[in-house]
Amino acid sequence: xxxxxxxxxxRNAEEVICAAMMTFMTVLGFANVVARYLGYSxxxxxxxxxxxxxxxxxxxxxxxxxxxxxxxxxxxxERLPIGSQKALEILSTVLTLGSLLVVxxxxxxxxxxxxxxxxxRTLSLDLPTVYYSLAIPVCGLLVVIRVLQASWRDWQSxxxxxx
Length: 163
Known about the structure:
Blueprint: H1 2-11, H2 13-37, H3 45-66, H4 82-117, H5 130-133, H6 135-157
Helix pairs in contact: 2-3, 3-6, 4-6
């Protein structure tokens, strides 16, 4: 029974982490509102919320590709011959991965080294700003994996007759 639960958590790691982050962000945001209502300031929590939102966005992107939940423009593709559908699937995958890899490369080559070299830090909590930027290459690799999995799944389903 416990092994089955652990396998479920492993299969749904992105969703579990996103849910935990959203829960923490909700509690932290609510505490900030209550504190302000009582006359206290917890302005520093906004830095944590923004940082977690960056990570949440990247993990959510990976989860979306895993679940095939991203918006797809299939109306025209579905009316084309199978060969053209497969060509469009390849083009879509190449463009998605290409744009993602360019963003990741810029982040890894320029932004992260600059933030480390300049010792760039947040204003309130004095955290390294590189913590924000690391979400792009770290979670980006997971997004690449999920894009490839989704493309393979879509490729295999092309031409199948659905019942």
